[in-house]
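Lab notes, practical 5.
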Amino acid sequence: MYSKAAELAELELIDYNRASRNYLEAAICFCYVSTDSACAYFKKSIRAFINSEDIDSAIYLSMICGYMYETKFGTCSRSLKFYMISHKLRIKNQKNHKCIITYDDYMAMEKTNGLEFVKWRQIIRSNKRICKKKNKPLDICLKCIYAHAKLDEDFEESIYFQDPYKYSFKKRKPFPKIKYIMNNIAGLNDKKQHSAVSSDSGIYSNTETNSTQ
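Output from the prediction step:
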């Protein structure tokens, strides 16, 4: 249903914003059945955002898809492709980004001062409220998305995307758990196992294990 509505909005009504939302809903539905099929609709949603000139949302959704395919579905190669889409969009459209807190910062804080967590959780919540008021997606990159995931208590339970009309975050039931264990690719410095895809992207490709396409 969502996929047909999205195609109608994109191809006949030329309403890319509506198309992107419907493609996203279709992708989320497919996630419970086939992550391969979901991938195609996530990409269509990203493309529709680009066509509507909503580059910030395209970057954001690319990052979230990368995070989901890495941590929820265990498909590192597909995850990296989504991360690269986000990175290339940021460069092509000259979108500057400054991390509120990086994953390296989070790890250092975890080792030295646990009291800082309370302060940073408040900062993350405050930033999220500001984004909702401005009707804008969060500005995240690979260097900070894992810190957001750790510090935001709603991150794992939500498809972290603002509804432009309700100004709220949609709660989703958890995706099926997979029997898959992998190391976070963020913040790793072992060059034998991870080689940089881009020197300034923070994106690393695992060179020792094969991932599902």
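Observations recorded by the TA: The mean pLDDT is 74. Residues 132 and 166 are 10 Å apart (CA to CA).
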